[in-house]
Amino acid sequence: MxxxxxxxxxxIAASIALPFVxxxxxHLHILTLILIWSFAYTSWxxxxxxxxxxxxxxxxxxxGAYVTALLWNHLAVSPWIGIPASMAAAGVxxxxxxxxxxxxxxxxxYFVLVxxxxxxxxxxxITATRDYTGGSLGLTPNRATGNHLLxxxxxxxxxxxxxxxxxxxxxxxVWRMIDRSMSRYAMEAISEDEDAAAAAGVNVTAEKLKVTMxxxxxxxxxxxxxxxxxxxxxxxxVSGISVSxxxxxxxxxxxxxxxxxxxxxxxxxxxxAEGLRIFFGANAVGWDNLVYGVLLVLFIIFLPRGVLGSVMxxxxxxxxxxxxxxxxxxxxxKQRS
Length: 337
Known about the structure:
This protein is an all-alpha fold. The protein has helices at 3-21, 25-48, 57-75, 79-103, 108-128, 130-133, 148-151, 157-179, 182-192, 194-199, 204-230, 235-238, 241-254, 261-280, 287-302, 306-336.
């Protein structure tokens, strides 16, 4: 076992033991939110790191949350079935939108506009079907009267923290699997030059669609999980352009090309939102989106690789300089002898 694996195992063990040592409900609540949103931001980064900038992930998250809640409230379908159903619905939506875009080479800002329209359409559908979704007033899943496990409803913060931790680790595992697959190299080639990648034998449409489907399914899962944890959803919290922009902000600020970058972004966004709420109360409603926008512009200009990405880049540069200096010293020592 290498030192890296030992540190990883120790970190996971400490994360699992944390809620049994520190039982403060508010702190566990914040950590649970960070883990759930980290998973959502990771799902966006899976596309974003390859140049597929999407503003439609708020739509996928809204589908995941609302389909799960509506099936439970109106048809008494357990979330254990509702969550896969909501993910399937998001996958179909990603296929409907993604395939024509990739088939007919709709890229760049045109693709961004298409995904922006998707996010707006989902938001409008949720708002318009207020008789079922509650519209802008939001929707509260019915409380279970019997088996809480069947309804995936738990009052214990420790249980939800452990669930969120498992889902977060799943997101990192998916990132790692893609990072080590041939799809990564295919997508990197596509992001550099689609025509050259196609000439080299890469199925551009299939590779783009594969990454988009994985990202959409994960985002819908995050929305469903957020719904079950918070027991309240509204168009503003799980859908629409504001949620999509929040994902973009967190991924870029944390580090788009690093697996733990979205997690760092989640820590920043959640603590920022909580800090504004605590210090300014109702007067700070909407301020977080304003701050996100300003910080996003600043990070794109001055720190394009994000917080964690820039730190790792600096550490790699220092390590390379250390190795170079060491080799130079060894060479000079041999020459003297």
